[in-house]
Design brief:
Residues 156-167 have a biased composition (Polar residues). By secondary structure, this protein is an alpha+beta fold. The protein has helices at 23-32, 38-43, 45-51, 69-78, 191-197; strands spanning 18-22, 59-67, 85-89, 100-103, 109-111, 114-116, 127-136, 139-147, 183-188, 202-207, 218-225, 232-234.
Amino acid sequence: MEATVKVKDLLSDLPTPTLLMELSLAESALNKSKISCLDDFLRDTEQLLSRAQVLDGTLFVHTKVTDTSERDKINQESGSGKSVGIGLVDCPPDLIPGGAYLGIGLANHHVGGYYWARGMGMGASLPAHGVEFRGVPYSNNIGELYWKKRGPGTNAAETTEESSNSNDGKRSEWADFLVKDDTVQLVPYNTTSLLLNSPFQRLIGVRRLGRPLGSDPIVERIWKRDGMLRGWVIENS
């Protein structure tokens, strides 16, 4: 389905799951590392092996919630906030070697009547504290969002067993309001492994900078896998 994506598509138009790069973040990261050309960097497998980590926080997997029935049943029986599981998503775990967490995301969202705004700049890749992504034992074709740790922590910048949330909870409490067909973005833990070993065959470059406030990011560039070399070459002119 990722092959159907076109330049000038909006984030809300994209199929799921899709591998995304936020271009303004990536360009800024490369500039700080004195790397001049994003296209050349992505094409060079040796560079990716040694320096792909400079792109940490710029890559996202766009995925869709497919089922929240287990969480909803627990909420009905025991009250809200009691379910470890949040919902299933249409992203198989093998698409994200090294795992991922739920990010604040690239766009404004309305979730079950609950609203949250995107994080600007690197805020998009900040963790929704305590919410992780994992596989499920009964299927290789889907994944699950779940609470690794729920409740306030001592450090709002961490997602660990000891610390999972900001004091008011707004960095992640919206995850409890996710419903079927909502889209979210997962942030990979291992950028190198994702770029070199993921089965994704397309990398979609989207941009938020310069867009009207509140509008969807727009597709500006598309790369495809460079055969056995595992790097990425520009697909669109």
